[in-house]
Amino acid sequence: MSKELGKRIQEQMNGLRLSQKQLAELANVTEVSMSRYISGDRDPATKTLANIATALHTTTDYLLGNEQEQDFNFRHVKTLLARNAGSLDNKQKREIVNALFGD
What we know:
mainly alpha
């Protein structure tokens, strides 16, 4: 699990253009711990994994490999929006509405 988890964390970080340090801060862990999660040397605790998923705007299932792809589906989008709505600014919220329903 560790290598696949680290790979998925890294892919999500790259997609969001987050540094390891930034992700560590968002997930409330040390940069050293984040490095160990990404390298596969260590598995995060359940709460930490949830924090990492939230910071990466994804699900723990995806990070753990229980979802093979991040396919567009309403349930997935609803979960992501509910989990991250408080951290979105108005511009980001408008972009999401426009992406879902058009301009």
